[in-house]
Structure formats: structure tokens, C-alpha cells
Amino acid sequence: MFLYGDYNDILEDSLIQKLNWLKEEFYYLFKFRQHKYNQKDKELAHQIIENFIESVNPSDSKGINDLLLETVEAIEKKYIGLF
Asked: Which residue, 49, 53, 50, is CA-closest to 65?
């Protein structure tokens, strides 16, 4: 049982690093747009989110899924015109 807890902690730490990368990626891609997004920007944003979620492969862990959901919602709120 102890190993299972360590494994979940490692997965969660890895996910946190990936989520930080995702937030930074949006910042660098869209920081100069000043909420003036064109259709290509919107398509790119959706594609990044979709591909990221697929690559993370959310587990059955509620905590991990909650972290993923919170980050995606924060990005959507920060970049309102993209979504």
C-alpha cells in the first residue's frame, strides 16, 4: 500500500509540472494579443488543450483530475476570447 501512495505522489508532481508548462505556453503564445484573437488563435488554443488532456491520460484519482480541471478552467478564464 505504501508504494501506491508514493506512485500517486509522483504522478501528481509530474502533472503539476506539466500543468505549469501548459500555463506558461499559453502565456508566451498569447500575451501580446491583448484579447484580440483571430480564428487561428482560437483553433490553436483548443488544439493545445485537447492534445494536452489526451497526453496526460487522466487517472482515476480525483485529486489529479481536479488539478487538471482547475488549470484548464483558469486558462479559459484568463484568455476569455479564446474559448
From this structure: 53
53: closest CA among 75, 29, 28, 80?
75
> pTM of this prediction?
0.80
The C-alpha atoms of residue 19 and residue 56 are separated, in whole angstroms, by 10
> 43-52: long-range contacts at Cβ-Cβ below 8 A with a sequence spacing of 24 or more?
45/79, 45/82, 45/83, 46/82, 46/83, 48/22, 49/75, 52/18, 52/22
* Confidence class for position 14, pLDDT limits 50, 70, 90: confident
